[in-house]
Amino acid sequence: MIKGHGGNIDLTARRIGCQPDEIIDMSSNINPLGTMPGLLAFLKQNIACISVLPEADASAVQLAFANRYDIDPWQVLAGNGVTQFIYALPLVLETRRALILGPTYADYADTCKMHAITYEYYHTQASEQFQYNPDKIREYLNRSDTVFICNPNNPTGVMIPKTTLAKLCREYPDIRFIIDESYLPFVIHGDRESMINSGLANVIIFNSMSKIFAVPGLRIGFMVAAPSVIEKFQQHWPPWCVNSLAQKAILWLMQRKEATDRFIRQTTRFILTEKKRFTALLKDNTGIRQFPSSTGFMLARINGSKTSADVSEMLLQQKILIRNCANFEGLSEQYFRIALKSAPVNRMLAEGLVALSNK
Question: I need a surface site. Which of 54, 129, 169, 348 has the fewest CB within 10 A?
């Protein structure tokens, strides 16, 4: 398991001698607007549901999800967050050789290591702003049976357009494309870029509610795939993968399409505005290089002799926690990721970065 996921507030608070709620967490890619209005109140009213077992196969929430996205319920499986699917997938699908488009989330490689599966990376480069080259991807595909793609990618924020991705998937029908869309709701008109309705038998989609609705502790994840793939997973899937409170939350969210769509639009507009402001504050600073991002977090690099550890420690003096990206395969110790928050917090971070780079 990767050491250094974002959002380790308790450990950080103990280390610097403060309370967890004193820290501004810009390390974890959670909706800066917080939880959708009304959801926390609903969960408080229904907290007693934890005293009984949830629906064992989560069929009600799977049906609600299928109706929400206009897909066949037999294409949907609910789980304890997307992470559960990532770690089960190679075993269920009998993966032999995987390709990972990086630099990216470490759990794709970790699950290959856990199951003794051979894997390799195709790493995008800073010189190309971490953009993907489909022709380079093709060079790796003929020696892979499974491909992991985080789209948009964590930590770079780069997204492969749906048209490009769909073309690749059609060209290689015998290769399974695992497309993690956990951060797609943060993209303007992200629903238009989703592969969830692709209808391609070799495509598996991961969908997370944890990030966009700011409920990571509930562990809500879905997988969308061909019915034959879902059937394989069900043979390995234990009962009660989705807890009682999470099932309540899913049904509440899925039954409010208009409200959830509005909340997502508000989020994407807010992120776009703050991203422009933040970028402008640092645009003339040569000590920090920002990379374009399609989503609510941004990858940056500190130039010169300083490292991302230096950046992290300096910001912790202001009780701001960012994500040191030195342990991402394919990135150096100069890279860090920030998740945008409120305008005042974003300005505070930008000013701190300018001060550090000028030292």
Answer: 129
Q: Which CATH number fits domain 9-35+262-357: 2.60.120.280, 3.30.465.10, 3.40.50.620, 3.90.1150.10?
A: 3.90.1150.10
39-258: CATH topology: Aspartate Aminotransferase; domain 2 (3.40.640)
Give the C-alpha distances (Å, rounded to integers) separating 320 from 53, 270, 274, 341. 39, 21, 17, 11
Residue-wise pLDDT for 161-210, tens only, equals 999 999 999 999 999 999 999 999 999 999 999 999 999 999 999 999 99
What digits encode the pLDDT tens for the residues 14-36? 888 888 888 899 999 999 999 99
342 and 33 in contact (C-beta within 8 Å)?
no
